[in-house]
């Protein structure tokens, strides 16, 4: 494993990166799953099985909702590969990345871990991942069997592959159905909503109607007191950060903004007026009392505020469906696609997770067999059946959709973005943590009313472009 000062520096930079959860994804419509079951089968593990070598693999993930289904996959995998056992460890989001970074620095990382697009370019730069090219070629794995574009996300500029896709996600509007109905609104109102950064469009009108002050006056009624709000019409899911996966990204993209100029780009667009006016709209509507204050979100948690009735809606990721619509929730939830913006279309960030092998793996061949199994229909259909995420193989996503439907949950608000090609990619750059350090604090300043977006973002943009050019 690379242990130069540059490697360690790049690893330490990862500590500073805060990407929204997770989640966990490309910008095309679904394709037929073809011969995925054949081409991504557990493959050439026979040589290891014949050798009788006992191998114990460590696998890390951060999503506790998915862990039971990967435990099920691990049991089935070991049944097919009796000499290989898999121990799965789950950590919370922050602890996961802190622990993984420290483990990389001490060469004690797990054999395999769930990777995120916000992180993996810096891991590639640091030399801590194992290239999968030879394994893929040897076993004839057809990466075209995943949703279009997912496999390509996990290759470096020089063509080295560092992950096989496991799932994908999009963003949609999450609504408290009771609060929506009490405001005299319907899901069709949100399905047909439009947004703009000048007056909020019809989406803004819907938010105002669902906002209620402490005296019971709604945000669209005379006498509304924006300084004393009981229920905010719209809630921030979390901090904006630099990428705003579950917060501002869909709105900025529908206003014509792109974060970076392509995959592994050397320039970005944080000085684009389309971004500034989008962020300023959020700040202005926070001040007006229609959107949850960033201070409350930071102290209470954005999703907690929604689940406790302090916010009537939010935008969130598809990986949260089982949490928001699960049996344990007391809030009746419905979903709508993101509103149509000034660009004339909707927009939703498309992200995808993959499994990567670390240079710490003592038996990369065994680690590859586990990665390949998780990326096969055998495992992905198990995960899909858990109705937690949308797997990377179309046939397994169909299983997930059926599972959601059986639970009485309509998830079309998330899948429509893929079906109708209204997605954009999570920014993939080897300077993610430096971008976060430059932009994140500025976003917070704007949301706190400590400056205007148009005045503060240009300086951050210069830092970002300097980091990318370097």
Task: List the keywords.
single chain, D-Maltodextrin-Binding Protein, domain 2, 12 strands, 21 helices, 2 domains
Topology:
Blueprint: H1 5-13, H2 36-39, H3 46-51, E1 55-61, H4 67-80, E2 84-90, H5 93-105, E3 112-115, H6 120-126, H7 133-139, E4 164-169, E5 171-176, H8 177-182, H9 187-191, H10 201-210, E6 212-213, E7 229-231, H11 249-254, H12 273-288, H13 294-300, H14 302-307, E8 313-317, H15 321-324, E9 333-336, E10 348-357, H16 364-374, H17 377-385, E11 390-391, H18 394-406, H19 412-419, E12 423-425, H20 432-447, H21 453-469
Parallel strand pairs: 1-2, 1-3, 10-12
Antiparallel strand pairs: 3-10, 4-10, 4-11, 5-8, 5-9, 6-7
Helix pairs in contact: 1-6, 4-17, 17-18, 20-21
Walk me through this protein's architecture.
The chain is α/β, with parallel strands linked by helices. It folds into 2 domains: 5-170 and 352-415, D-Maltodextrin-Binding Protein, domain 2; 171-349 and 434-469, D-Maltodextrin-Binding Protein, domain 2 (3-Layer(aba) Sandwich), CATH 3.40.190. The chain is 41% helix and 13% strand. Strands 1, 2, 3, 4, 10, 11 and 12 form a 7-stranded mixed sheet that branches. The chain has a 3-stranded antiparallel sheet with strand order 8-5-9. Strand 1, helix 4 (67-80) and strand 2 form a beta-alpha-beta unit. Helix 1 packs antiparallel against helix 6, helix 17 (377-385) runs parallel beside helix 18 and helix 20 (432-447) runs antiparallel to helix 21. The longest helix is centred in the last third of the chain and has 17 residues, at 453-469. The two termini are 24 Å apart. The model is unreliable at 1-50 (pLDDT under 50).
